[in-house]
Write a structure and sequence with these properties.
The chain is α+β, with helices and mostly antiparallel strands. It is globular and about 70 Å long.
Length: 451
């Protein structure tokens, strides 16, 4: 028994490489007779199958008067078809212990299930029926309108969520990219069944849809099942859309709410989704503010105890990107926190990061990536998003190789690119009483630069 344990410990190759080479995971990209792209990944060591329908349509594709319609459609697909009502859909998935869900983003919408492999046929039948035969009934729409209005109110009541919408609305105010995904109460109240149906017909098409499946199956058998379920779907002719540039507008915005805390987003324009600094930005975010060991968290929260929450994140889209620092704190601490944040930014600009810190960070992000890709759901998600947005998949090995190649010089380029104070934007929500937030930030930046 002990010898078996020691044999495992003494293995020289990383576990992921053993898994990949000895189990023979097979990923293939195919096309149905009607043009739908299908990405299949056979993972024989799992007992589940994750299935997703990915549509290249989200809130950034909506005109001002249609803001929120994609998210509304996402809800309506669960309300019933010609042969199932909403309760039937829920019960049939519950009976097989399956998971079914959907979400809308700024650039795409996803409908997905996860079931045991032996129950997949039922899940496919339910999903294809929902997607191809939803009735978009007017009575159901009126009920769902109330639910979505409450969802909008819920996000408005959560300052940490609302401040992000405020930021994006202000920095991308001339683009649909700035619309909140849920839309606005005044726009969604104007939707009716005819408008929903027409938008679905025009924007949910075979040419902008990808089906992604990952789990325990044989690729050729799975492809036949998907062809049978979706092969007869005929959509309208492709509507050509120009890929317009998204202008970043420097902004400072605030909204008072009856809360004890203040919620702040500090933002800088960043690279779009597939820019040349894509991987170095991921690494920099991880070491700067991506977790509990990050520079920001340790300096502001752990060493000085000035915030409950502080972190950074990067949002990258087809034609725009933004790097954001989020913090929630007692308003009386804001000046000191600003000074610590911008002092850290200036220190990084002057001295960069060490080889040792970068090495630890690369180990962290690679480990997180590998662990995060160990389920059928995560593989379905990775493959579906990659094919929909880029037209191809990258193997985990390729991604790991790019992460391992990041250098200290790459990180320095990212630091110098992001921290341009001439382009800084700030959004604040919550207890703003008596605060001139922009002037506090300007003062802290000046102090950090002149140190």
């Amino acid at each position: 028994m002990l010898s078996g344990i020691f044999n495992i410990i003494s293995i020289k190759r990383p576990f992921y490489q053993i898994l990949k080479s000895e189990v023979h995971i097979l990923t293939e990209l195919k096309t149905l007779s009607n043009g739908i792209r299908v990405v299949l990944e056979d993972i024989p060591y799992v007992r589940s199958i994750s299935f997703g329908i990915w549509v290249k349509n989200g809130s950034a594709d909506e005109s001002d008067d249609k803001a929120g319609i994609s998210h509304f459609i996402e809800h309506m697909l669960f309300k019933g078809t010609s042969k199932r009502n909403g309760k039937d859909i829920a019960e049939e998935m519950d009976e097989i212990g399956g998971q079914i869900n959907a979400y809308t983003t700024k650039e795409y919408t996803v409908f997905h299930t996860r079931t045991l492999d032996k129950h997949f046929d039922k899940a496919l039948d339910v999903m294809s029926d929902m997607f191809l035969n939803s009735r978009f009934d007017e009575k159901d729409m009126k009920k769902e309108l109330g639910i979505i209005l409450e969802e909008i109110k819920m996000y408005d009541d959560e300052p940490e969520e609302h401040v992000t919408d405020m930021l994006q609305d202000s920095i991308w105010k001339n683009s649909p990219l700035g619309h909140p995904i849920l839309g606005y109460a005044e726009t969604i109240k104007n939707f009716d069944s005819a408008a929903i149906k027409q938008y679905f017909i025009e924007n949910y098409r075979t040419d902008n849809t990808v089906i992604s499946v990952a789990g325990n199956f044989k690729n050729d058998e799975m492809l036949k099942k998907i062809q049978a379920a979706f092969g007869n779907w005929k959509s309208v002719k492709k509507i050509e859309k120009t890929s317009a540039a998204v202008d970043y507008t420097k902004s400072s915005t605030s909204e008072k709410k009856d809360t004890e805390q203040l919620h702040i987003n500090i933002a800088f324009p960043c690279e779009k989704r597939d820019g040349k600094m894509k991987y170095p930005i991921v690494a920099f975010n991880a070491l700067f503010g991506g977790g509990m060991s990050s520079l920001l968290f340790q300096k502001v929260r752990e060493e000085n105890g000035l915030t409950y929450s502080i972190f950074s994140y990067n949002s990258a889209f087809e034609n725009a990107g933004v790097f954001t620092i989020y913090l929630s704190l007692n308003p009386s601490q804001l000046q000191k926190v600003f000074e610590l944040i911008f002092a850290e930014c200036e220190q990084l600009k002057k001295t960069g990061v060490s080889e040792e810190l970068l090495k630890k960070t690369k180990t962290q992000i690679i480990s997180s990536f590998i662990i995060g890709n160990e389920s059928s759901l995560s593989r379905m998600t990775s493959n579906g998003g990659s094919v929909l947005l880029r037209g191809y998949t990258e193997s985990p090995d390729e991604i790991i190789k790019k992460a391992e190649a990041i250098t200290v010089s790459d990180i320095q380029d990212v630091i110098n690119f992001i921290f341009d104070y001439e382009k800084i934007s700030i959004a604040a929500c919550g207890n703003t009483n008596g605060l001139d937030i922009k002037n506090l930030a300007d003062s802290a930046i000046s102090k950090a630069m002149n140190k």
